[in-house]
Design goal:
Order of helices and strands of chain A: HEEHHEEHEE
Radius of gyration of chain A: 13 Å
Number of domains of chain B: 3
CATH architecture of the largest domain in chain B: 3-Layer(bba) Sandwich
Shape of chain A: globular
Oligomer: heterodimer
Strand content of chain A: 15-25%
Bound molecules: flavin-adenine dinucleotide, iron/sulfur cluster
CATH class of the largest domain in chain B: Alpha Beta
Number of helices of chain B: 17
Shape of chain B: globular
Strand order of the largest sheet of chain A: 1-6
Structural class of chain B: alpha/beta
Structural class of chain A: alpha+beta
């Protein structure tokens, strides 16, 4: 199924920080078999770059749900809330 | 203004329903309270189905039905069992005001404003990063900018409660103890909503959805009607999503396309997409509820009754009971764990912990027998009605026997016994 997630995220108000609040442990990600975060994230924040063997983190799109932190296969994701003035704003919720 | 700089009587972290209920109860009793919220405004980080419940909400806001920004008064509950293409719907309707649909961005914001009016000192756009401990007691919080001190800190920081974990009140959440939920709010004309859901004026309807794209998984879908929008979403236990490598928004798309759902939302324009976790650990996963100088309320304490989609009411009442406990602690100047453990006693006597206890085995049974109860029997309900409504020239008696036989050929006798036993055990644990 091909879903344009950007179109959904476009409905949200974001105030992105200059620094990521999601910090995966690069070494652990290389060893990680499931790459679960790339599937379960409801905002498709994570993408695996085969070539560079590196996890790309589009943290600006994060919905701050916390699922990736709990589901991370290697429990190696340093996950913080963005600063008080940053991140997503839901108007409907 | 605060009497002393950076020191107050109570700090409440998080301005969701539990935090606001706690803070406003304290302020009304003349206590000095600082309520800290990380969002741009209260509600701006919050997502739910959903409906708030009148009885609990009235305990905090007696006139909310007139004063709060509510959407619709729910008069109908639907239980929709989806097969792959067919469905069965059980609908209960009654002129009632037991619950109202609300939009959290509006309702939480209103509730926090009410708290301000009652004297709560509301600090928004501020994240509490750490709790400050002195001599084995929580004495304050550290934000990005400064330190705030208090006699008691109440953690109302929601399902992820990084703070309760930080001070060891609970271990880290497991994937089977939370559901990941995604939802969409779709703009639709008020008249169209009323027509499609058989409503008039401000009447509302709730749809709980079983099966469909969630067949065989511990997941539920939901629809709520707002004034001029419809909410549709689903929540699935995180371990199942992770195992199956499902993308949550793909499941939602499948749900939206189901032939029994699509006509209800046709033409709806996406207003907002969102996601949030729901605590699912139940009674057995409730963390330690207090320690020296600190209490935990609402989702941070896992207080959600999943079967009934109840969370805000448990949040509000736990916040209120925590406040009542803190009021006594302030008057006796005793902030020890022992003094604050009155909160736990109060929760036990209220419906909050009683209901949590009633369903203590529900999720274990559902996890263990999900293929039976969340796939096979759901399909069988639809198969029964398919048979019952058919008119295909086959004598009815033959059809009945074929249906009954199918149960015994689909499932082994042992599995059937296990199913029956699981149901009996569950009923036993709920009723006794
Ligand atoms: C999809 C979904 C559907 C639901 N449907 C219903 C329903 O129909 N009816 C119902 O009654 N319940 C429903 N619930 C449950 C209900 O939403 C929750 O139980 C309720 O919101 C819990 O209230 P709370 O105040 O404990 O937590 P929250 O509402 O999550 O509030 C926590 C607050 O703390 C803030 N915060 C967190 N960390 C910090 C920090 N470090 N510093 C500062 N602020 C912080 C957050 O921004 C937030 O405002 C649903 C939940 C979900 C996810
Ligand atoms: S699941 Fe964890 S370890 Fe695996 S790729 Fe994602 S962040 Fe890295
Ligand atoms: S917190 Fe939620 S939205 Fe943000 S990256 Fe993790 S899974 Fe994605």
């Amino acid at each position: 199924m091909n879903i344009d997630i950007d179109k959904k995220l476009y409905t949200l108000k974001y105030s992105p920080d200059t620094e990521s609040h999601l910090k995966p442990d690069k070494e652990q990600c290389r060893l990680c078999k499931s790459k679960t975060c790339t599937y379960i994230c409801p905002a498709k924040v994570y993408e695996w770059n085969e070539e560079k063997q590196e996890l790309i983190v589009n943290y600006e799109n994060c919905l701050e749900c916390g699922a990736c932190r709990i589901a991370c296969e290697r429990k190696s994701l340093d996950w913080q809330y963005p600063k008080g003035t940053k991140g997503v704003t839901f108007k409907q919720g | 203004m605060l009497k002393k700089e950076n020191k107050t009587e109570v700090i409440v972290v998080g301005a969701g329903p539990s935090g606001v209920a706690c803070a406003i109860t304290l302020a009304r009793a003349g206590k000095e309270v600082v309520l800290i919220e990380r969002g741009l405004f209260s509600g701006s980080k919050n997502v739910f189905g959903g409906a708030i419940y009148t009885a609990a909400t009235k305990e905090i806001f007696p006139n909310f039905e007139k004063e709060a920004p509510v959407e619709r008064r729910n008069i109908e509950h639907n239980y929709l069992i989806l097969g792959e293409q067919d469905s069965t719907n059980i609908s209960y309707r009654k002129e009632d005001n037991a619950s109202y649909s609300v939009i959290r961005g509006k309702f939480d914001r209103w509730a926090a404003e009410e708290a301000k009016k009652a004297g709560v000192y509301l600090v928004e756009e501020t994240v509490v990063r750490d709790l400050i401990k002195e001599k084995n007691r929580v004495v304050g919080v550290r934000t990005e900018l400064e330190e705030f001190y208090a006699d008691v800190v109440v953690l109302a920081d929601g399902v992820n409660s990084l703070l309760a974990k930080q001070i060891g009140l609970r271990s880290d959440i497991e994937t089977k103890d939370v559901a990941l939920s995604v939802k969409e709010v779709l703009s639709l004309d008020k008249d169209i909503i009323n027509q499609r859901f058989h409503l008039k004026d401000d009447e509302g309807s709730i749809v709980e959805i079983f099966g469909g794209p969630m067949l065989g998984m511990l997941g539920l879908g939901f629809m709520y009607t707002n004034k001029d929008s419809v909410t549709i979403g689903l929540g699935v236990t995180l371990n199942e999503l992770a195992q199956a490598n499902y993308r949550p928004f793909e499941l939602l798309e499948q749900l939206k396309q189901h032939p029994s759902v699509a006509p209800l939302i046709e033409g709806g324009v996406l207003k907002e997409y969102s996601a949030h976790l729901i605590p699912e650990g139940g009674y057995k996963k409730i963390p330690k509820l207090c320690d020296n100088g600190v209490l935990v309320v609402g989702d941070a304490a896992m207080l959600v009754n999943n079967l009934h989609w109840e969370g805000t009411n448990l949040a509000m009442i736990s916040g209120k009971l925590a406040a009542e406990t803190v009021i006594i602690a302030l008057e006796t100047e005793d902030f020890s764990k022992k003094s604050l453990s009155r909160y736990e006693d109060k929760l036990k006597q209220s419906f909050v912990l009683k209901d949590m206890k009633t369903y203590k085995d529900l999720f274990d049974v559902m996890h263990a027998r999900k293929q039976a109860f969340l796939s096979y029997y759901l399909k069988k309900v639809n198969a029964f009605f398919e048979m019952f409504t058919s008119s295909d020239g086959i004598p009815k008696k033959d059809n009945y026997w074929k249906f009954i036989k199918s149960i015994f050929t689909d499932r082994s006798i042992i599995e059937l016994f296990k199913d029956a036993f699981a149901i009996l055990k569950l009923l036993w644990s709920i009723l006794l």
